[in-house]
Amino acid sequence: MIKYIKETTEYLQEKGFDNPEIGIILGTGLGKLIDEIEILNEVSYNHIPNFPTATVEFHKGKLIYGKLAGKKVVVMQGRFHLYEGYSLQDVTYPVRVMSMLGVKTLLVSNASGAINLKYKKGELMLIDDHINLQGGSPLAFKGVEQLGSRFTDMSAPYDPEINAKIQLIAKQNSINLHTGVYASVVGPQLETRAEYRYLKTIGADAVGMSTVPEIIVANHLDLPVAAISVLTDECDPDNLTPVDIDEIIAMAGKAEPHMILLFKELIKLL
What we know:
Nucleoside_phosphorylase_sf; Rossmann fold; 6 helices; 9 strands; transferase
């Protein structure tokens, strides 16, 4: 894997991806942050050596390099998921590449369902902790110790200092920002009523199909990381209605401006 990561990194450096400071992963329906970036270069995933290819229709599949709030950033416009048939190592490969490019902070976004019924669709949740229900670890492979500590500490997976900055920015801008626990499942099917009850019982405030593997690898690399969920639906098992994916995408778009503001103001402080 080290050979592959170096190969990918060298390719991107040749394309002008020069010492980015901040890495950003954009989740489902959350691509408009790109409009705020002074784009210096972009490469489709399918042109990058050793990179997976996005197969989800609402994930663009581009790696973008540019400037945002005065900082050099590298942005994944579209991420990879287990439900696309990729391994956990594939899903997290871009995080390792971003780290080797020079990224010092990772910011992650996703669309998720609200398990905590005090949280409403269209609102944001800052992830404070998570529950890994994806059935594996991106660190469970031979030779992982060559890339970082095999037994990675996860007592505070989301950087407390960055989270505190995000909470302050939300308060200053009157953004209703919840804080909670994110549960990551495989998908792509949505949850049953019984599964929503189970998730609530074990302490989840929101549920989605991504993010946790990327956070684990960021911690493995000692890369400070923060993540924000855009809550796109309310998962009430006693009043469950069929989920409309188009509605989820629309709800992500509605809440996205607040997420963009939080990320832009945070980047100024990093």
